[in-house]
Amino acid sequence: MRNFLLTAVLATASLFGGVTQAAEFQAGKEYVELSSPVPVADPSKIEVVELFWYGCPHCYQFEPVIKPWAEKLPEDVQFKRIPAMFGGIWNAHGQLFVTLESMGVEPKVHDAVFAAYHQERKKLATPEEMADFLEGHGVDKQAFLKAYNSFGVRGRVEQAKKLGMAYQITGVPVMIVNGKYRFDLGSSGGPERTLQVADFLIEKERAAR
Question: What percent of the chain clears pLDDT 90, i.e. is strictly above it?
Fold first, then answer.
């Protein structure tokens, strides 16, 4: 399993969370500018991506922070989640997310899936285990299994894998702004400052238009 961002690093960084102003965020320090920008889905929008894994404890802790922030983004910003897939259960959970998204039910069960893994100790490692769990949250079991194994979902899974490679990620959670800038909780200095970096880069991209 890939190394996660160390909790100790996040705790230490949070002590200084309010010190640095947005104007001081620098490439090579709080964020990395990708050498090869990745094309965005909609060039008319400023794209913000979060790469995550349902089994990642830091992703789980970040969710209550990033969710309300994402819900309040302005119209010219498009937020999207992409599952990180490094093999094994990462790929299974990535396919789970893509399936839920393709069925249009991801928003209503996203939090429940996170809680199932981290609070209820459900690994959700197989499609059948996923389907049984989701049935209790109003998702049709057979419809889920059919979608999970569909050609369309498998194609989107492969696309997500390619994006993860293009972004050159090595762990999660990671954020990407407009296919150009990569940063995470460790480099930014904690969850709240990660979103400050995101706001700073969104404004940077908006000003460049």
Answer: 89
Exposure of 185 by Cβ count < 10 A (0-12 exposed, 13-18 middle, 19+ buried)?
buried
CATH of the domain at 159: 3.40.30.10
23 contact partners, CB below 8 Å, separation of at least 6: none
Two structure tokens written together for 135: 């049935």
With H, G, I as helix, E, B as strand and everything else as coil, classify residue 72.
coil
Which DSSP letter does residue 85 get?
-
* 154 phi and psi angles, rounded to 5 deg: -60, -35
Q: 151 lies in which domain range?
A: 30-206
Spatial neighbors of 74 by CB under 8 A, at least 6 apart, are none
Number of domain units in the chain: 1
User: In the prediction, which pLDDT does 23 show?
Assistant: 54
**In the predicted structure, residue 105 carries a pLDDT above the cut 80:** yes
The DSSP string of 109-172 is HHHHHHHHHHTS-----SHHHHHHHHHTTT--HHHHHHHHTSHHHHHHHHHHHHHHHHTT--SS
Q: Is the pLDDT of residue 20 over 70?
A: no
Instruction: Kindly indicate the confidence band of residue 8, based on its pLDDT and cuts at 50, 70 and 90.
Output: very low
Is residue 18 one of the residues assigned to a domain?
A: no
Please state, in angstroms and rounded to a whole number, the distance separating the CA atoms of residues 198 and 162.
23
Structure tokens at 110: 């996203």
Does 172 reside within a domain?
A: yes
What's the pLDDT score for residue 24?
Answer: 79
